[in-house]
Amino acid sequence: MSFDRDRLHLAIQKSGRLADQSRQLLKDAGLKLQQGGRNELAARAENFPLDLMLVRDDDIPTFVADGVCELGIVGQNVLDEYALGRPELRIEQVAKLGFGRCSLKIAAPDSLGRFELAMLQGQRIATSYPRLLGRFLADNRIAAEVVTMRGAVELAPRLGIAGFVCDLVSTGATLDANGLMPVADVFDSEAVLIRTPRPLDAAHAEKAAALLTRIDGVIATAESKYIVLNAPESALPAIVQILPGAEAPTVIPLIGREGQVAVQAVCQESVFWETLERLKAAGASAILVMPIEKMML
What we know:
CATH class of the largest domain: Alpha Beta
Number of helices: 9
Mean pLDDT: 91
Shape: globular
Distance between the termini: 34 Å
CATH architecture of the largest domain: 3-Layer(aba) Sandwich
Low-confidence stretches: none
CATH superfamily of the largest domain: Periplasmic binding protein-like II
Number of domains: 3
Structural class: alpha/beta
Radius of gyration: 24 Å
Helix content: 25-40%
């Protein structure tokens, strides 16, 4: 597929969990995406003027910073590692996307036992994120040697390359399989949507705004629920306080039931069973919680 400068361009990871979740976000935003071949570096949306650039995750900030792509989806860890190397750039972070959550942690061999940060003084620490680790060490006034590796970081202690590692942890299974335990948190990360610092012409700005509106709607509905319930009018102040993250609810009198109302509200926070129990205790009945498929803010 040729590079069409009249279309909007979004850089995403070529493969892996973040790639799958990025595509799902765009599908939830109503985009019909071409699958593309295994070795293709681009894919096209069939019903929106958008082309996906499928690249390595650590290349995404470069594509966006240089204006090759107007937008990108990348892990916060990759973005900040890149930004620390080019502080003159101001890539705009548009939104946190709520997926791809992980943590950059310092890990030590299981045999270490008790750990304190001071134990890192003078040690060698292997990592694929030397700038983030360097900032953490500087903030904590720790003088340690950072050993940069591009893969298999967890093998460093076993091979005698370093006594500690600093690596991304999602489930912790990889550390555990290599006899390592997390001992310090360096950086918490999730996927973020970023925008180029270069100015966009009016046509591209309009396309970007339309896409961002859709994505904002998907993010808003991820945890949002639509709640309908009946209650005595006198219980409204208490019920409104309980409804999580809700703005002014809609209140409708119930025909033939004096002093009783129906309450409808969009709750933009998680609704747990404990929330329903509190609503019932406050006087609510016939409580119905429904998912929201689409929302435009």
